[in-house]
Structures are given as C-alpha cells and as structure tokens.
Amino acid sequence: MKLIENKNIFDNSTFFALLPKEQKIVPVKFNSSVRYDELINLENQKELLLNNIDSFARNNISEHTLLWGAKGCGKSTLVKLAVEKISLNRKKIKLIEVFSLNLDFLADICFVLNNYNFKFILFIDDINFNKVDDNFKYFKSLIEGSILSSSENIKFIVTSNLRNLSINSVDQKNLNDLEIREVRENNLSLVDRFGCKISFYDFDQEKYLKVVNFYLQKFSIKTSQKIRKLAIQWSIQKGNFSGRTALQFAKNYSLNRP
Q1: Global confidence as pTM
Q2: Is 106 in contact with 98 (CB distance < 8 Å)?
Q3: Has residue 132 got a pLDDT over 90?
Q4: Closest CA relative to residue 245, chosen from 79, 71, 77, 82
Q5: Which helix (H) or strand (E) holds 135?
C-alpha cells in the first residue's frame, strides 16, 4: 500500500483526504460557505479548539480532541475553519480527513506520517461504534497505548453526536451489576483518551433567531416579525434550533422570498 505517491505532497496544501478505493492520500480544496467569525454562539468552543490546535502547531502541549453534541451545531465546520485560520501563520499544520468506515487505514497512515516534518491532524467526522467490536479496540489503542500513538507530529480530532462514541448494543438483561459496570467503563475508556473534550448543544430560540438574523443580513434581508415566525416554523419542521437549521432557513428564504 503506497499511501503517498509524491513525497512533496504536503508542501503546497493544507487539506487532504484518504481515498480508500485508491488507497492514497490526496490534497483537496476546502471551500466553506461560512467564515470562522460567522460561527456565532460558539465562542467558548472556538477558543478551546483554536488554542489546542495552535499549541500543537507550535510544538507545545496539546491533546487529542473530541467534539461531541447536537447535530448541525458546527462541529466539523469549526474544525476545518480553525485549521484554515491557524495555517495562515503556521504553514506546517495539515489536516487529513479519514472516513469513519476506513479506520483500518489509520495504523498505516500514522506510520507513514512519522517520516514527514509537518504537524498532522487526523480528522474523523461523525464517528460512533455500534458495538464493542474490533474497530473500537483498534481505534482505542491507536489513540493511546500503541507505539504508533506516541507520534509527536500526529493528533486525532473526532466529532460525534454521542458523548461516549459508542452505542451500547450489549444485551444487559443477563448481566450482573459488575458486568454492566465493566461494559460502561469499557465504553468510557475510549473517551478518556481524549484530553480535550468540547461539547455542543442546540441553541435556544433566542440564540437561534440571532443566527437567523445574522445570515439574513448577510443576504441583505431585513428581519421582520413575519420572518421570525417563518424561521421558528422552519425549525419545528427540522426538529432543532441549530446553526445549520438557521443557515438553511436563511438560504431558503433568500431564494424564495416574495
């Protein structure tokens, strides 16, 4: 498996992805419809993540990072925008996205990246485990425990809707209290390997409407009481008060306004 075909691949790009069928890492262009400073109501999350990545880029103390919480609240977008922001001054920081279905490539990737004088973030979006299977044990070892996990130029950043990363699918009906506790502790043992844990929650109605208003202004639309009611109706249909829902409403209204 030759994951990297060109030894100079990391010289001119910041963002990369593993293509599993081709079994290689390639540069990709990152274009976001949202800028870093447009992620509002996330000030604490932005500060925690930015400080950790910047410290890693400067060869200082840093941690593997887990961003968990409600869907559509900007977890994955924040990761990429934070890396983009830091890379303006710290050229050696690189992000490689690995899909959660391709965790079996991680050991090979870590081994190969040890040979490069860059700081790598291995980014895995929307990860979870349906059971305590081989992937769970494999990933847990790579985060902390394996010789490969001691690589000073590699950090993992993972997003998940689940705080514990694992859906407990073990039938507990026939387990005693001790065995149930062991199952729970095994699930938590992976999360404990992330020294930086950042939580995200759905906005309340006030914060949601604040984000809606922000994006409507971006589209040169003045907010009215009627639009606020439409935005709330939109959120009810979507089932949450997330930033994603706010942006989708603003785009939809901009496209279909009278």
Answers
A1: 0.87
A2: yes
A3: no
A4: 71
A5: helix 134-143
